[in-house]
Design goal:
The complex is a heterodimer of chains A (82) and B (163). Chain A has 82 residues and is of the alpha+beta class. Chain A contains three helices and seven strands. Chain A is globular. Chain B is an alpha+beta fold. Chain B contains four helices and nine strands. The chains are: A alpha+beta (82), B alpha+beta (163). Chains A and B meet through strand 7 of A and strand 4, helix 2, helix 3 and strand 8 of B.
Chain lengths: 82, 163
């Protein structure tokens, strides 16, 4: 089971702050995106946005990063702090 | 890092901060450093063409401190700096409020100037904060700027260890 979390504008667009995803592991972040879209096709425009950033266990990663069972995977828009 | 100094490196908080206090902490019992450089960021009344009346800062609580600590570590590996103090506020902020504080002490000013600048540039691109501005025409999420990426690219080109 993977803990998925969403932040900021993406959270508002998806109307969800996260969910538990049951997916065979290890898998890639990209495969998680595909699984999320299969379950929620209405999210396509938002989850497929190439500008989205991703973190696995609170470290920024690229879409080819590997995810293990029990990891937390976060998706969010480009950050704007400071 | 100065092991003799029980120094609080970073804070993510709703509360305001006192620059005079933070500066005093960077100086306290510190005879080895000849320079302190600090930056404070404020809420201004314009951004991306709208009349801003305030902003809400969201963050990813489980990740924020880890990301900021990683940025401080990068700065410490790159410049001979001693103390670093980083504060970032979250939640509802109003016009002219303080948002962020970065203070760096070092034996010499060049390292303190550059490390402070580096930490701010990296924070803006790699720490999980998002600003939602309140304007007279409604609320909207601040968009990332190309100039912030260029600021980061500059440090990567300048990195003598990255060849």
């Amino acid at each position: 089971m993977i803990n998925i979390v969403f932040f900021a504008q993406l959270r508002e667009q998806l109307k969800s702050d996260g969910l538990q995803l049951d997916i065979p592991t290890p898998c890639t972040v990209k495969e998680i995106q595909v699984a999320l879209l299969a379950q929620n096709p209405q999210w396509r425009d938002f989850i497929s946005n190439p500008a989205l950033m991703c973190a696995v266990n609170q470290d920024m990663v690229q879409l080819d990063a590997m995810v293990e069972n029990g990891n937390e995977v976060a998706f969010f828009p480009p950050v704007t702090g400071g | 890092m100065d092991d003799n100094c029980p120094y609080d490196l970073l804070s993510v908080q709703e509360a305001d901060f006192d620059v005079a206090y933070e500066y005093a902490q960077l100086r306290e019992n510190n005879s080895q450093d000849g320079a302190i450089v600090f930056f404070s960021g404020l809420v201004r009344d314009f951004n991306q063409g709208q009349d801003v009346t305030g902003l809400f800062l969201e963050h990813y609580p489980a990740m924020t401190a880890k990301a900021l600590a990683g940025i401080i570590d990068q700065a410490k590996s790159r410049w001979p700096i001693n103390r670093v103090r980083l504060i970032h506020r979250v939640g509802q902020l109003h016009l002219a409020d303080q948002i962020v504080f970065v203070g760096v002490s070092s034996s010499h000013r060049e390292a303190a100037f550059e490390a402070c600048h580096f930490i701010m540039d990296y924070l803006k691109k790699q720490a999980p904060f998002w600003k939602k501005e309140t304007t007279k025409k409604g609320d909207w999420w601040v968009e990332t700027l190309e100039k912030d990426q260029k600021a980061l690219d500059k440090w990567q080109q300048d990195d003598p260890t990255d060849s």
